């Protein structure tokens, strides 16, 4: 697995340096490598952003050029708009579903517009700016939730607008939203990847590859009028359905949801169907335009070759669009059941490749009564001497400054966050983790910040559940967090505890010190890499690779 990761890093760096190597074959290799890691990583890689990266990676294979077919002359790429459209469709499904599930989940914080009152302290790894965002007045937090719904539900439909100004509005809305999330939360590469997907909303004129051609006469007037109507409807929709009003006495903008759950479900049904139709019409227009450009090529052979390429990518695009419909309609049972059985069959048969997925981030807001946090402690005496294990990034010490780790994802810290939401009985990996701490296993200790028993492992380990809250201005303290003990998450266990030994036997985890023997070149290479790189924290390692590469790329 380490070797696969190293090969993937090297292949990615090659793509950054060499434009010619940004080939569909190279991206196919990268996709297969990450798919392998995803399947092996299981629980530790089953996050929505890993799935999103897989789907984006596969679409990149279609978007990237196939250099071997150039035959020493520029290849006809009339089908680029077709494959690029699939990126836009993915972005639409991601954002639209993320907004819809917040309300279909019936989470009281989303319906009460109070979700952000808890989000900044309950998210997995907060940033220092999250502390300041948490101090904002409640009316602003509610207004921010309204903005979230607007950006995630109606605005994505503008992705397919033929009017450039509306697409630019949608683009900048998404950019603002993603940057705000990056500043206040550590969500690894997810928001950066979403920003990359947003590029699909731009055209060559926006990116400076073509000179901007302004509309003239009646077309200019009509587009401006249509844009004004859309903006007006969006403002009216927001004010009406969220009861926006100015309270001059409190110097605040008040808001509240003005529709019922049943009304929203009816809207979901209509909007899902509308999304499918808009997507179908948009894709059809893109396909017809690509075919028209192919027919406009000079020479019979060039026309035939262009049409052949377009035909292949049209079939692939239609297939990808169809198998993505179940993931879009999963938010509405009626629309899901009305899909053709053939579509469901295609989706099921291709599911092992993870080509498309359903999304829905922050479905329910956790940590309403306090952010649950597991603190693991070790001791050589059951009655005294308990010392905490400190993790690299998740909250532990209340005085520790929240970390900034983007685009790195500390997988163990994230899993600890999920484990705190339930029981260790539902997280078998947690028992495996405790078992390895009881043996001071070096590979596992590298994943935490401080081991209070460096010389020999403790005889006992326990885990307590705390509720953490961000401190406030009024508390006049230097601490970032305050906490309260809730209960014992895991009672003290030792190497001889029946639960530990039974689990170790059933999972084949019996710890055996590694025996020295003949080592291969690959083992020696990985050992050297592990020794030299292991001392660096994840974000430092990523930046130490990316920054020099980007500087060289800019200078070169």
Automatic annotation (TrEMBL):
The keyword Ion transport does not apply. GO terms for cellular component: endoplasmic reticulum membrane. Residues 46-207 form the Lipase maturation factor 1/2 N-terminal domain. It comes from the Eukaryota. The keyword Transferase does not apply. It is found in: Endoplasmic reticulum membrane. One of its GO terms (biological process) is protein maturation. It holds the Pfam family LMF1. Keywords: Endoplasmic reticulum, Glycoprotein, Membrane, Transmembrane, Transmembrane helix. InterPro entries: LMF (IPR009613), LMF1/2_C (IPR057433), LMF1/2_N (IPR057434). Residues 356-490 form the Lipase maturation factor 1/2 C-terminal domain. The chain crosses the membrane at residues 28-47, 52-70, 82-101, 175-201, 221-239, 272-292, 304-328, 536-555. It is a multi-pass membrane protein. Belongs to the lipase maturation factor family. Involved in the maturation of specific proteins in the endoplasmic reticulum. PANTHER family: LIPASE MATURATION FACTOR, LIPASE MATURATION FACTOR 2. This is Lipase maturation factor. It comes from Holothuria leucospilota.
């Amino acid at each position: 697995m380490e070797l696969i990761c190293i090969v993937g890093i090297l292949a990615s760096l090659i793509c950054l340096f060499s434009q010619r190597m940004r080939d569909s074959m190279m991206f196919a290799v990268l996709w297969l490598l990450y798919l392998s890691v995803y399947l092996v990583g299981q629980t530790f890689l089953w996050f929505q952003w890993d799935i999103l990266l897989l789907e984006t990676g596969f679409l990149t294979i279609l978007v990237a050029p196939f250099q071997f077919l150039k035959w020493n002359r520029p290849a006809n790429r009339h089908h680029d708009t077709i494959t690029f459209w699939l990126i836009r469709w993915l972005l639409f499904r991601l954002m639209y579903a993320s907004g819809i599930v917040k309300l279909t989940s019936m989470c009281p914080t989303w319906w009460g517009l109070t979700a952000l009152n808890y989000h900044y302290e309950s998210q997995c790894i907060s940033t220092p700016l999250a502390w300041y965002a948490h101090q904002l007045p409640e009316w602003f937090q509610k207004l921010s939730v309204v903005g979230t719904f607007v950006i995630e539900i109606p605005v994505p439909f503008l992705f397919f607008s033929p009017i450039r100004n509306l697409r630019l509005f949608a683009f900048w809305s998404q950019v603002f939203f993603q940057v705000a999330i990056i500043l206040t939360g550590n969500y690894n590469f997810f928001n950066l990847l979403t920003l990359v997907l947003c590029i699909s909303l731009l055209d060559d004129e926006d990116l400076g590859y073509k000179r901007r051609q302004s509309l003239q006469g009646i077309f200019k007037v009509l587009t401006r009028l249509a844009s004004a109507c859309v903006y007006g409807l969006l403002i009216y929709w927001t004010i009406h359905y969220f009861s926006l009003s100015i309270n001059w006495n409190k110097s605040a903008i008040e808001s509240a949801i003005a529709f019922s759950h049943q009304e929203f479900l009816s809207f979901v049904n209509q909007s899902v169907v509308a999304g499918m139709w808009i997507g179908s019409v948009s894709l059809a227009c893109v396909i017809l335009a690509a075919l028209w450009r192919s027919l406009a090529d000079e020479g019979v052979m060039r026309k035939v070759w262009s049409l052949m390429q377009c035909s292949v990518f049209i079939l692939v695009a239609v297939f990808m669009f169809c198998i993505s419909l179940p993931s879009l309609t999963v938010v509405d049972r009626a629309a899901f059941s009305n899909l053709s059985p053939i579509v469901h069959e295609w989706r099921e048969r291709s599911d092992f490749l993870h080509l498309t997925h359903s999304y829905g981030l922050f479905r329910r807001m956790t940590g309403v009564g306090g952010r649950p946090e597991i603190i693991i402690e070790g001791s050589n005496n059951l009655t005294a001497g308990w010392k905490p294990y400190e993790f690299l990034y998740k909250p532990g010490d209340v005085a520790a400054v929240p970390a900034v780790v983007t685009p790195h994802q500390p997988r163990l810290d994230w899993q600890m966050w999920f484990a705190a939401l339930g029981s260790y009985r539902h997280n078998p990996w947690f028992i495996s983790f405790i078992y390895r701490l009881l043996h001071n296993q070096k590979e596992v200790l590298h994943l935490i910040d401080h081991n209070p028993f460096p010389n020999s492992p403790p005889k006992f380990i326990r885990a307590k559940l705390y509720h953490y809250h961000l401190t406030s201005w009024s508390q006049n303290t230097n601490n970032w967090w305050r906490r309260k003990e809730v209960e014992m998450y895991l009672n003290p266990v030792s190497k001889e505890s029946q639960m530990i030994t039974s689990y170790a036997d059933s999972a084949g985890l019996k710890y055996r010190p590694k025996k020295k023997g003949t080592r291969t070149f690959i083992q020696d290479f990985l050992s050297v890499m592990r020794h030299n790189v292991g001392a660096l924290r994840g974000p430092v390692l990523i930046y130490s690779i990316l920054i020099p590469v980007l500087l060289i790329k800019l200078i070169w």
